[in-house]
Each structure stands twice: as C-alpha cells, then as structure tokens.
Amino acid sequence: MKIDLLSISTSPPTDISKEEIKKETKALKEEMNELQQLLYAESKHALLIVLQGMDASGKDGAIRDVFSAMNPQGVRVHSFKVPSSEERRHDYLWRVHKMTPERGMIQIFNRSHYEDVLVTRVLGNIDDAEAEKRFGHINDFERMLTDCDTIILKFYLHISEEEQQKNFRDRLTDPFKHWKHSIKDHKMAKYWPEFRQYYQEVFEKCSPEIPWVIVPSDSNWYKEYIIAKAIVDTLNELDMKYPKLNL
Question: Is 0.85 topped by the overall pTM?
Fold first, then answer.
C-alpha cells in the first residue's frame, strides 16, 4: 500500500480524551494478558511483533509499557543491532529466522529484518537493485512464517523530527537516560528524507497482505493504546480455546 508519511500526523487526534484513552489502554492490557495466557496454553499459533521507527521514536518505552502486564514466560524480546562477525558470515536473514517465535509464544523485534533494506540503503551498503531482491526475500520469509501459524504485526512508530530532537535532549539532561545517548543517532537523524523514502517503499512493497500499522508516536499514551488495541484485536480473531482436561 502507498503511504505518504508527510501526510500523516504524528500527534493523537484532537477529538479524543487522553484520560479516556488511558482507561481504555488499561483495560486492553488486562485483556491482552488473558489472551497471551490463552495463546500460551493452546500453543497453536505464535505472534511476531515488529517494531520499527527512527532513533528515539519510543520502541523501548512501548515494549516496557505495553507488555509489562504479561507473563514473562510467554514473551521474548530481541533487539537487532549491527550484525556480529558470525552473523555477517551468514545470509542476512539467518540471525532473524532463529529468533522467530515458537507456537504459544509472543516474540517482539526491536528493529528487525527491515533494517537490511533501510539503514543499509541510507549508508550506501546496498543499491536499489539489491534492495528489490531483498524485498522479495522478505516477502517469501514472512509468507513462510504465516503459513506455519505465525501471525505477524508490524508497527512503524511515527514521530516528528521535533519530537525526536526533544527526546535526544532528554537523554542529555536526564541521568536515567544518559546511557541511551549516542553521537551516531544524531548523525543518522540528518538522513530523515532518505529514511522516509525507503520506509514508504517498504510499506508498499513488503508483504502487502501484512499491512503496517502507522502509529502516531509523539504522545506515549496514544502510542500505547494503538499498539495494545491492534494486538488484542488480532488475538481475538484467533478464536482460541483452552485445551480440555486429559485424564
């Protein structure tokens, strides 16, 4: 699907109540906890959650705040950073495939296989022709996962450049966030137009049958609501049931 990020607001709608949305989010998280236990008990499906976004878009916070109510036995998180020497000796999807969830589990990707058609293009590590090949690889990879009972939810955390800079400043002034500060992040922020273009290509060309959820993320309370609602709606569609007592 074609998405123009510049035409999509990074802020919550003006006609909603922050307090009401926060109440709804609390209820959604309680329901999500129940559904996660059911997913774990039934063990017929797996859920893969992909979180993408610019640096300081709030991926870590979303993972902490949305999933904190879940049973940690059924949820795993993996952050994809610069490939290690071992990972570079394999195909670029090798490190991703081995982290996909088993049935009954929820796996969260903080960044993902999409980095290999995003930052690699921005840095000039691959050209457009190679990117097109990788779009096909990713499509086949995700179709294979869905054919094997893995549901995939893909979220793009959509923040403004102004909000990103505010978050960068917070990392300099808040002692609890100093550890997140990186000169590299500031350098990469200069490539907003390129990232925007490549993200829009990803939205259009990668697994269109698994559409991206564009999450306005300048306000954490609204971001959490959108993610939690999408997860609850998706799990409810599975019509899961607890296994019967086997005597």
Answer: yes
